[in-house]
Amino acid sequence: MNRMTAPDRLKRTSRLWSTLGVVLIFGGWELAARLMGPMLMATPLEAVRTIGSLAGDPGFWSHSRDSLARIALGVSVGCSIGFVLGVLAGHDARLRGLLEPLRWLLMAIPPVVVVVLAMLWFGLGSGMVIFITILMMAPGMYVNTVKGMRMIDAGLLEMGHVYRFGAWTRLRHIYLPALAAPLTAALLIAACGGVRLVVMAEVLGAESGVGYALANARSTFDSGRLYAWVLLILGLVALLEFLLLQPLQRRLTRWQEPSHA
């Protein structure tokens, strides 16, 4: 007879409480919708029904395509810049000191201020949204990369120096395994944050995309369509986290798990 181990029991308990949390969220949503009325808030069932009608609208696919392209480009470029600068700054204290004021500035400034400035510089459209996403995503990845670089075992670095590892070999066999945990955590935060940031920028200053569709639904008091888009955004974030980023995190950090005889 198989006995459930302690980690398995913890995972099962966590799933049960997570399911209860989802039920409470939708229950609270249903109660709030009944209290506020259909003009201000659609019920969960109404939002789900509206998704079906959205899928038959040609604008749905064009808005979704534009937002997905902006998210993919903005998050990937922003994280790549943050990673490269983080690796370089982790090697050189002078570069790290030089970049520190810029890092602090980008992390301290409110995103809405960046949106307003980007609208002045780039106008409305994809350029503005992608610029904002890159600018806001890079600092988080940079900070996590620098932190991971400074925690790498000095003995491993010395071994690479003794055996004359090339730059690619050091990156693949020393840096990436050591950076796997902080980088995957930062990537998870960046991807989910990137979705929110792109939608916010589109609401404030774009002529297409999910945020633009949200703004239109708000202006016409179409609560069913507005909350249908909200559900779709939540679904996208869930897909990114549970089907892509968490499996990637488990794969990259598998070597850190204790082996069982």
Automatic annotation (TrEMBL):
Q: How does it sit in the membrane?
A: Multi-pass membrane protein
Q: Which Pfam families match?
A: BPD_transp_1
Q: Which domain of life is it from?
A: Bacteria
Where is the ABC transmembrane type-1 domain positioned along the sequence? 64-244
In terms of one coarse class, where is the protein primarily found? Answer: membrane
Supply the alphabetized keyword list. Cell membrane, Membrane, Transmembrane, Transmembrane helix, Transport
- Positions of transmembrane segments: 71-90, 102-122, 128-146, 174-199, 226-245
| Localization (cell) | Cell membrane
Family, similarity comment:
Belongs to the binding-protein-dependent transport system permease family.
Name-wise, this protein is: ABC transporter permease
Recorded source organism is Castellaniella ginsengisoli
Which lineage do the record's taxonomy fields give for this organism?
A: Bacteria, Pseudomonadati, Pseudomonadota, Betaproteobacteria, Burkholderiales
